[in-house]
Specification:
The two termini are 26 Å apart. The strands form 2 sheets. The protein has a two-stranded antiparallel sheet with strand order 1-4. The chain has a two-stranded antiparallel sheet with strand order 2-3. The chain is 46% helix and 11% strand. Helix 1 packs antiparallel against helix 2 and helix 2 packs across helix 3 (58-66). The chain is elongated, with a radius of gyration of 19 Å. It has 3 helices and 4 strands. It is mostly helical and 108 residues long.
Length: 108
C-alpha cells in the first residue's frame, strides 16, 4: 500500500526545502539569505503538514528534517557477501558505526 498523497506531498516539500536551504547557505554556492529564509519556510510548511497527520508537534518534526544535511537524495545502502576459497566471509569495520564489523558496501 502506498503512502497517502498528503504524505508524499509533505515529503517532497521537505526535500525541496532542505535541498534549497543547503544551496542557499553553502559558501561554495554564493549564499543568499533571502533564499535561505524562503526554503526554511517551505520546510516549515512540510513540518506542519506532517504534524497535522501525526501525533508529533511541528517543532520536533522540523528538528528531524533539519538533521538531514546537504542535497536530499534517496539513501540507498548496498551490501555484498564475499567468500574466499575456504568459505570464509569478508567483513569490514565501519568507521561511521564505531568500527563495528559488517559486510562490505555502503551508500550508493
Amino acid at each position: 500500500m502506498s503512502p497517502p498523497q498528503w504524505l508524499r506531498w509533505a515529503r517532497e516539500l521537505a526535500a525541496i526545502g532542505r535541498t534549497g536551504f543547503f544551496y542557499a547557505t553553502d559558501e561554495r554556492f554564493h549564499p543568499n539569505t533571502y533564499d535561505a529564509d524562503r526554503y526554511r519556510a517551505v520546510e516549515g510548511i512540510a513540518a506542519e503538514i506532517l504534524a497535522a497527520g501525526s501525533d508529533t508537534d511541528p517543532v520536533t518534526i522540523r528538528d528531524v528534517l533539519a538533521s538531514d544535511h546537504g542535497h536530499i537524495t534517496p539513501k540507498i545502502d548496498v551490501r555484498g557477501v564475499v567468500f574466499d576459497s575456504e568459505s570464509r566471509m569478508l567483513l569490514v569495520q565501519e568507521k561511521s558505526d564505531q568500527m563495528r564489523w559488517t559486510l562490505p558496501g555502503g551508500l550508493g
